[in-house]
Amino acid sequence: MNLNQTPAAERPHIGFFGCRNAGKSSIVNAVTGQNLAVVSNVKGTTTDPVVKAMELLPAGPVVMIDTPGIDDDGELGKLRVEKSYQMLNRTDLAIVVIDGGTGIKKEDFALLKEIEKRKVPFIIAVNKSDLLKEHRIQSKGRGKVPEESLIYVSAETGEGIRELKKESGKASAQRKIKKESWEICWNREMLLCLSSRLMNLHQKGG
User: Dihedral of the CA atoms 131, 105, 81, 39 (nearest 10)?
Assistant: First the structure.
């Protein structure tokens, strides 16, 4: 089986999350080198999750997920936010995109709290770094930003995109190894359990 034939279920799922106009779709396009997501200055352009299986070096075969903004409002907006959070169930690596110009918001902190609760590996991509005088991010909510998870990027200039791809590939590979190891252990336990049951049945029958 070559890389292009790898089933989607076996590929690491990389999800892009964040507030509206943080630049999620632009970062998706910059990372993939393709126009996978529609980009617009209008808030809430991404109204439904966009899921695409593709090859991403150095990660290999992956599934990319672009999600609606987590700060959407109104009744319809709340449904979109719910959809974004639901995509965490399918995510092996979450990339939280922050607008470097406006800083990290309370919605971002709420998302990070949920991601950590679910123990999903994550990277914080601070977008629009080309507009910052220095690599420092403002905080507009209660919480502490894990500095070791920050990568400053610019979808406009390409700054930090290579590093983001590299770290995404490493994290995805590690996640895949952990999942495969868990599956091997699970299968081994199931075989031992089945073997024990068969032996008991054989003894009773004898």
Answer: -10
